[in-house]
Each structure stands twice: as C-alpha cells, then as structure tokens.
C-alpha cells in the first residue's frame, strides 16, 4: 500500500537491511512501547445503509510514530499477530473504542479482531468485562473477523464467537470472497454480516462475473437473514451497481474515509459556526 508514502519506504528500507526475524523483533519492540505510550490512534470509517443513513462506524487502528509519522495497520498488525502483542493491541483498541463510544456518530461500532486473538480461550470473557466496565451493551458492537480456515466445533474460536453473540455482539466476516472458506462460512450460520471484499467491488461495473457473484451472495445472504456490506466503494457507478445487486450496507472512500474523531467534531463545529 503506497498511501504511507515516505514512511512505508523507510520501513521497507530497514527491512532490506535487517533479516526478517530481526526486523520483526525491531517492530515488535517499538510497537510494544507505542502501546504503552499511547502512540496509537483509531480512525473511524462510516458504513451506510440502503436509505443513505449512516448506520455504524468501523474502528481502524493507526500507529502515530514519533519519527515515521502515521503507519497503517497492514504494516504492523501482521507482525503483532506473531506474538502475544496482538492481544495487547486488541485490548488497547477495544478500550479506546469503548472510551470513544459516547462521541461516535452512530450507536454501533465495528472492531477488527484477529484470528490469533480469538484463539485465546478467554477472549470473549475479557471482551465482556471490558465493555461492562465501560457500561456498554454487546448490541453496540460488531466484531469483524477475517475469513480464515473453517472454525471447528468446540474450537476456542467458535466458543468465543458464541459467547460474543450471546452478549448481543454481531459477527461479521471481513474480506468475504478473498479467502477460501466462503461457502463453509455461509453454512455455519454463526455470522450476522458478510463484508464483500473490495476486489469484487473494484470491478463490479466492468466484470460481469464479479457482479454475478455479488448478486448470488446477496440472494443467499437474504435467505439466511445475513446482511451484506460492500467494502471499498469508490465511485457512484459502483455504489449504484451494488444497490441494484442487493447489498444492504456500503463503505468506501466515496461515502467517507476513515478519520479521527477530533476531525469529525471540528467539522461539526465548523458546520455549526457556518450555519
Ligand atoms: P479491513 O478491516 O478490511 O478494513 C478496510 C480497509 O480498507 C481499511 O484499511 C480502510 O482504510 C480501507 N478502505 C476503506 N474504504 C476504502 C476504499 O474505498 N478504497 C480503498 N482502496 N481502501 C478502502 P486500513 O485502515 O489500512 O486497514 C487494513 C486492515 O488492517 C483492515 O482491513 C483490518 O484487517 C486490519 N486492521 C485495522 N484495524 C485493526 C485492529 O484494530 N485490529 C486488527 N486485528 N486488525 C485491524
Ligand atoms: Mg474490517
Ligand atoms: Mg475488509
Ligand atoms: Mg482487510
């Protein structure tokens, strides 16, 4: 992803100098410190319904590095996933999101959770404690998990998801269609939302096969009572096509970029002053 510009290149440069293992340990050490020093922040991206109303926001973590500037999660989440650091990162994110809830523009907020976090037998119990401490109900949360291997019965992952759902948390399969377990996920019936990977959205108006796949997924999902959110909506043509095909939620740069809460408040203040 080139959107970090120079920052991404500095990391890439260090990556060339250091062995893979040393690079990983280097990032790990810095990230551990960053969590302690509150150098991370959350940007929120809106999700809209068919009626054009904002329904929820997705929390996306960023690392505001003192030297390197803003680092995107794609550059550090996979490294955090290699150790217990991912649990610390996830806990930091949930705590910050809970603190932000009163200032969010929507009642519902989605957070991304790694498969590595869900593997911890007490993930859901800790989640429950964290939101209870903030006085929040599970209904306010969506947990997005990336499509991975099928979740076996009696696995820790599965039990955590069931626990979360019992709290009222909705479960979304992120990047649906990008992995390999797509139909298994549908058969499972343990999900509430499918988020169609943006690879399908990107060519929805130019590749008939992509629009046929999305239309079929929407039909199946409708029959199962599952919501379908299209990710990465960048043009009005894509948006119109996705509405036509039966998607029920829409997210993407066309509709709203991820942004820090402060920017939202300032924008609202500016709008109030301008009015
Ligand atoms: P994701 O959950 O699929 O999030 C969507 C990504 O697509 C975000 O990238 C978002 O900025 C980007 N995006 C949104 N709309 C558009 C669009 O219209 N066009 C394009 N090209 N991109 C769009 P981001 O923020 O860099 O996050 C990347 C991934 O990092 C996320 O993918 C998610 O898997 C992971 N991630 C983010 N925050 C967290 C977190 O707190 N915990 C964990 N475990 N993973 C996270
Ligand atoms: Mg997501
Ligand atoms: Mg996604
Ligand atoms: Mg993703």
What's the layout of helices and strands?
Elements: H1 6-17, H2 20-36, E1 40-49, E2 54-65, E3 69-71, H3 77-80, H4 85-100, E4 108-113, H5 115-118, H6 123-133, E5 141-146, H7 156-166, E6 170-176, H8 182-188, E7 193-196, H9 198-202, H10 208-224, E8 227-230, H11 236-245, E9 249-250, E10 259-260, H12 261-274
Parallel strand pairs: 2-4, 4-5, 5-6, 6-7, 7-8, 8-9
Antiparallel strand pairs: 1-2, 1-9, 1-10, 2-3
Bound molecules: ligand C2E and magnesium ion (3 copies).
One magnesium ion binds next to strand 6.
Describe this structure in words.
This protein has 275 residues and is of the alpha/beta class. Helices cover 47% and strands 20% of the residues. The chain is built from twelve helices and ten strands. Helix 2 runs parallel beside helix 4. It is globular and about 45 Å long. The termini are far apart. Mean pLDDT is 89; it is low at 1-5. One magnesium ion binds at residues 58, 112, 144, 174. One magnesium ion (MG) binds next to strand 6. Keywords: Hydrolase, Membrane, Nucleotidyltransferase, Transferase, Transmembrane, Transmembrane helix. Its EC number is 2.7.7.65, 3.1.4.52.
């Amino acid at each position: 992803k080139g959107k970090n510009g120079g920052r991404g290149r500095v990391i890439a440069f260090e990556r060339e100098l250091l062995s893979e293992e040393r690079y990983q340990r280097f990032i790990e050490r810095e990230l551990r410190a960053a969590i302690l020093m509150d150098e991370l922040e959350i940007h929120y991206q809106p999700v809209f319904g068919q009626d054009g109303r904002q329904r929820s926001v997705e929390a996306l973590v960023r690392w505001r590095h003192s030297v390197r500037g803003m680092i995107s999660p794609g550059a550090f989440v996979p490294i955090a996933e290699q150790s217990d650091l991912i649990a610390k990162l996830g806990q930091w994110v949930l705590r910050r999101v809970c603190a932000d809830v009163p200032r969010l523009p929507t009642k519902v907020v989605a957070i991304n959770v790694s498969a590595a976090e869900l593997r911890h037998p007490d993930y859901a119990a800790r989640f429950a404690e964290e939101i209870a401490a903030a006085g929040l109900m599970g209904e306010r949360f969506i947990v997005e998990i990336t499509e991975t291997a099928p979740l076996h019965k009696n696995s820790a992952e599965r039990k955590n998801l069931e626990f979360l759902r019992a709290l009222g948390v909705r479960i979304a399969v992120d990047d649906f269609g990008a992995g390999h377990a797509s139909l298994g996920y549908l058969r499972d019936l343990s999900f509430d939302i499918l988020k169609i990977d943006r690879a399908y959205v990107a060519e929805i108006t130019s590749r008939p096969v992509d629009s046929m796949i999305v239309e079929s997924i929407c039909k199946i999902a409708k029959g199962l009572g599952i919501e379908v959110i299209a990710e990465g909506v960048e043009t009005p043509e894509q948006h119109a096509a996705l509405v036509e095909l039966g998607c029920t939620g829409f997210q993407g740069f066309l509709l709203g970029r991820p942004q820090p809460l402060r920017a939202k408040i300032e924008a609202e203040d500016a709008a109030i002053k301008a009015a």
